[in-house]
Amino acid sequence: MGYVRFVNGISPEPSPEPSPGTHPQAGPEAAPGRIVLLTTSHRVAPGLLSWPAWQALRTADAVLCADGAHPQLPYLREAGIAVTQTSPTARELVDACAGGRTVVVVATGEGEPALTDGLARLAGSGRVAMPELELLPASYDLPGARLLDLVQVMDRIRAECPWSSRQTHEGLAKYGIEEAYELVEAIEAGDREELREELGDVLLQVVFHSRIAEEDPDAPFSVDDVAGGIVAKLIHRHPHVFGDEQAETPEDVKQHWLRTKAEEKQRTSVTEGVPLGQPGLALAAKLASRTRTAGLDVPLPQGEGIGYELLALAVRAEAHGIDPEAALRAAARAYRDAIRAAESEGRNTAG
């Protein structure tokens, strides 16, 4: 691989003067060359570059990088790629491409906005023979890669924010409940933008609690432990996906799920694991679902009062595939709208 020799690490030596009688624009020296802006993702391990990226690096006449601490540099040098640490101006970069040379610029984490803006201005002036400019992504984010950013941001906030650094699991518990309800509200409202935001808020609670848990002196665990645990659980409880078992209907899946949970937790009753602190209608529906799935025929307790009537309504709703909590919320929203309409009519009449 040939390399451009740089004066002060930036500009190439002047091209030789044309021979008498030759046109100054003729010959290979007049070719404008090529600039390759190589971008990489900090969420992918350094050195894991695409084949087109390695081809561009190995065939380039020069490889430049403004950041001497760029995480890719050790891997490029190990592969025999000579990298010049420099931050050329747009004009210096164009000059470095003179004679048909190819220059690869390894972009920093922020990209190279000053350089690309300068190249755009040169191209717009119409006074410079511009080299070919190629943007070459050398590595791409994998699905879920932005979760790494969230973990890093949470680490810094936990360390530096006066409020976040003092939070505990107990102090954050109420926010988890609030965010869960706001998520449900966004789902029921059909608001996609709100849904995306509320999912983020719920995810924050998971990452925040996991970060706090790392500091426990007796039984620490991290967000990786949390993720690893749920991955193992999902695989174990879906043998029809990851194993040899068969499941033809959603009910088959649900029965296996409950059976596996009972084995894992050594439960002796289908009611174990049902949180009694959840809203009453949801609690009644959950108990009815567990009973029905287990094939038990348990008569409803007889008693007087609104509680027993609501219990019967909740069990009937669950049997028909209706979420009684969601149904009541929908009816409550209709009631709210009726109240607002009455208030508006009252104001109009008074006016």
UniProtKB/TrEMBL annotation:
Q: Which Pfam families match?
A: MazG
Instruction: State if Hydrolase is listed as a keyword.
Output: yes
Keyword terms: Hydrolase
Q: Which SUPFAM superfamilies match?
A: all-alpha NTP pyrophosphatases, Tetrapyrrole methylase
Task: Provide the coiled-coil residue spans.
Answer: none
Reported EC number(s) for this entry are: 3.6.1.8
* Stretch forming the signal peptide: none
The ranges of region (Disordered) come to 7-30
Leading EC class: hydrolase
The UniProt record lists the keyword Hydrolase:
yes
Q: Which GO terms describe its molecular function?
A: ATP diphosphatase activity
Domain (NTP pyrophosphohydrolase MazG-like): give its ranges: 167-242
Tell me the protein's name.
Nucleoside triphosphate pyrophosphohydrolase
